[in-house]
Amino acid sequence: MNSTIATAARKVSATFLRDARLMLSYRLMFLLEAFAIVASVAGLWFISKIVPASAAFGGGHVSTYFDYAVVNVAFVTLQTAALQSFESSIRNEQVFGTLEAILSTPTRVSLVVLAAGAWAFTFAFIQVAMYLAMGGLFGLHFSHINLVALAVFLILAITATVPLGVISAAAVVRFKQGSPTGFIFNRAATLLAGVLFPVSLLPAWLQVFSWALPITHALSGIRGAFRGATLGEMSYDVLWLGAATIVLMPLALLVFRAAVARARFDGTLGQY
Amino acid sequence: MRRGELFGLLGANGAGKSTILRLIAGLVIADSGTIRVDGIDVRSAPLAVRRKVALCATDERSFYYRLSGRRNLEYFGALVGLHGQRLRERIAFVAGLVDLTGDLDRRFDAFSSGMKQRLGIARGLLGDPELLILDEPTRAVDPVHAASIRAFVRDELVGRQGKTVLLATNTLDEAWELCEQIAVLRRGRLVAIGAPDALAAGAGGPVRYAITVDRTDADLIARTRAVPGLLELEVASDGDGMQLNVRLDGEPRALTELLRAVSANGVCVSSIRPQERRPADVFADLIAEAPK
């Protein structure tokens, strides 16, 4: 059992190194990414100049728009990584022609897909760090941060959004096209999850959709951790994300397994 | 297939060779039937089978172009369970086998077609598999490198390493030269299996003869061409006269009719020699005889 876990860990590590080396072979992309982050943070700072501080931004505590938005924009990157990494992993392997070579080895498809998240999330955390560092330069406050709560919500943000990415990857395996799942959830997050404005501004009937998105609860918790809220004060969001993980993760793996089995029967696993 | 055997899978394009290879590797699941490798059912225990089998996809698209040969082998080596010093040693060993030691740190997109094919074989050997499946290993390789790959498969993989090799190929001479047993497929069905000599002997169909005559003229050529059952005629100069190289259908009376036509008008036939059947002839016969 330990040997199996160690072997799986080494395969994840090898996939991490592969993805890191591939991405590092495109150096210009890093510069563009850094520029995009600087531009994004600067844009939020200028917007915050015309938006007055409000309790709506701080869950009842008065907060600036900049503190509110820059944290959201930084951490929504984690959802983007979850939604895109698994899907694009399968899609890229199909298009590059490497999928069948990988699956000819004694490696489970689920491990191949989940391992793709290792570098994607590492890169997402680098982006988050860059957002926060830039935010700090523009005046983002870190003085009240509850690190334990932040760590818990980061884990839950990942575990609750990963299943959506796995389902998206299943769609790629089955239908051989970029799945719309990632696009829909990312756009929905912008509108409904409180990334650029508080959910409380939405009509009541739209707030129902906001409530159903994992990222809404993840961002709410992360913002709370930044202003020093305890896990007890945010227990509702913790439970919501925990329950979503427990329900969605096995469901997503089942859907993915079914998609792979079907593709194996059809002989289309490596096709694109 | 027997252990330590070099087994050929022959068939025209679309005959199902690659599908069978992918079925054995567990990439495709069969609608019916059973495939066992060393007694293990591919369908029920695909991972166990893949520890014993390596599908050498020599398709150059199956590598990461922006990584070096070594980085590619490191990644695929990890997927077959190797790590640390053992992985490094194994990479050095297989790179040496396929003569890529000095080129391993070049980026894959700088490799020639032959090097890419050899890297594909090296990747297959990383996990030290018992059964190596080669899918058209000499496709897109120049004749010199194709010959070296064939020699490597026969002498090194089977001869020295003792691997069992399943070789799918469109190249008839390759299968005839290398394989101890050959299975011929037609539209997904097995139409013949056996050693190359046995296949040649067992297959009916056209036969070739070399007939030496003292002279030829236009009449003789015209009479010969009119013989029922003549499929090919080639006239060549022989030291003692002229040689007619003919290909006849399998009907016995075709040779009788041919000799009657040739020897008319006083032409003297000095020898009739049956020719060894060419792989292409045997293959064409086997394909043609397959039940529809």
List key phrases describing it.
heterodimer; A: 272 residues; mainly alpha; 10 helices; B: 292 residues; four-stranded antiparallel sheet; 11 helices
Notes on the protein architecture:
- The complex is a heterodimer of chains A (272) and B (292).
- In chain A, 76% of the residues lie in helices and 0% in strands.
- The relative contact order of chain A is 0.14.
- Chain A is an all-alpha fold.
- The radius of gyration of chain A is 20 Å and the shape is globular.
- In chain B, a hairpin with a 2-residue loop joins strand 2 and strand 3.
- Chain B is elongated and about 80 Å long.
- At the A-B interface, helix 1, helix 4 and helix 10 of A face helix 2, strand 4 and helix 3 of B.
Low-confidence stretches of chain B: none
Q: Report on the biggest sheet of chain B.
A: 6 strands, mixed
Low-confidence stretches of chain A: none
- Beta-strand residue fraction of chain A: under 5%
Give a brief rundown of this model:
The complex is a heterodimer of chains A (272) and B (292). Chain A is an all-alpha fold and 272 residues long.
SSE blueprint and pairings:
The complex is a heterodimer of chains A (272) and B (292).
Chain A: H1 2-24, H2 27-48, H3 65-96, H4 99-103, H5 109-137, H6 147-175, H7 181-192, H8 204-212, H9 214-226, H10 235-266
Helix pairs in contact in A: 1-5, 2-3, 2-5, 3-5, 3-6, 3-7, 3-9, 6-9, 6-10, 9-10
Chain B: E1 6-11, H1 17-24, E2 36-37, E3 40-41, H2 46-52, E4 53-56, H3 69-79, H4 84-97, H5 113-125, E5 131-135, H6 143-160, E6 164-169, H7 172-178, E7 181-186, E8 189-194, H8 196-202, E9 207-213, H9 218-225, E10 230-238, E11 241-248, H10 252-263, E12 269-274, H11 279-289
Parallel strand pairs in B: 1-6, 1-7, 4-5, 5-6
Antiparallel strand pairs in B: 2-3, 7-8, 9-11, 9-12, 10-11
Helix pairs in contact in B: 4-5
